Request: fold
Amino acid sequence: MKKKVVSSLLCAAMLVTMVAGCGGSGSTDTNTTPAGGDTQSAAAGTEAGGSDAASGLAYKGDLEIMHFSTEEESQGNGGSDGMRTVLQQWNDANADINLIQTVYANDDYKTQIATLAAADDLPDVFLVQGMNVREWAKQGLITDLTDEIKNSPYSADYNESYFTPFKDADGKIYGFPVLTGGTCTVVIYDSKAWADAGYDKFPSTWEDVEAAVPKLQEAGYKEAIAFGNSGQWQMNSCFLSTLGDRFTGPDWYQSMINKGGAKFTDAEFVAALAETQRLFKDTEIFNKDFNAISNEDAREYYISGDAAAFIGGNWDESYIQATLKEGNEELFNNTKFAVLPQPKDAKYDENGQNIGLGYAVAINPKLKDDPDKFAAAVDLAEYITGPVFSDYVAKNYGLGGLTKVADPDLSSLDQMTQDFYNWSYVDTTPCEIYDSYLASAVWAVVNQDLQDMVNGDKSPEDVAADAQKAYEENY
Reply:
């Protein structure tokens, strides 16, 4: 039975995504395969290694999966490479199942999956974003997988915190978190520059950062920390959702998710907004054009040596690492990682950074009509999010997935990759990424208001009030 991959791109103009979220840099995939055109097998040319994929499933026939790990995106992208690798392994191990893959570039995927959901025409297996889970669950578009996850052979090794965006208010889980877990908020800094300013490591408080600014300026740096917010989502994903946790603690946001009584207008969250405004508006820590440039532009300030540090996401770290490794060995060797400094009046985890998996493998409820096909879909979801995937991305990229890897062998990776792995998964504690939850209509209001607030055109109290209104109307 012939296996195939359908690699598709929309030819019409794309809809603008209102909220990019963590990883909102978006795909720059340039796949030009005609819509509906067949291509080679998804993982062709990728070293699959040994396969532990299950075989002997009772189901025989077609099984569809839709995802966005295109061949182009997998070049240097650990999550996409890992996804294509494990899909090929599962495919090879189940010869009686015709695995049909529909593969879109990332932005196209978001548009297409929303269109299919609106038409109640979703594929057998697909990837769902956390912000869509509750609404799609109410509409009966995704399957409650709580029991399947609990009974998975890999359940003991699952990182339980990654399931949170894919739960409803009753705690039911609607997907296996997929791809690699990455931070949206990492401080990337030149350790030599900060050592010359008097700090053996990056300052742990914003007060110390402010004190270092004159010394850095004397040394020739234009900015202490580079940041870009032209897309509006960056202030939310890459700054506030970590800084906010320092003021509110994790229970506050969990209450927001569960409609448990917490409000955007609560004093603790307003204090986080006020501190965000102060840092960007009233200090000389950040580049003055932060609202006019993107995170991609801002990271160039760090690469060029104009800024002594940069705040962005894991995708920015990957780019900075590759660029410095090729063109600036000294800065490559001096680059280290830190969490956001602690605000003066914050009371909660000073070692936190927001990290998560933005998508999960979901299953169409219609498969329940065919128990053998449903079992095959569950087996596929378990495998592509299980230990083989996590081992592969840890060993080859220094990344982590849903399944924990005990003492991964990172010896073949460079020191910067090893350092970032330990920073991401070992040495820091996770907090939630705000816009992995709630609703895009809420974040469209918040993100615009945040940009106005840090410009000084809106008060923290007004931002909080607008956010609460949007929350009550749309969630």
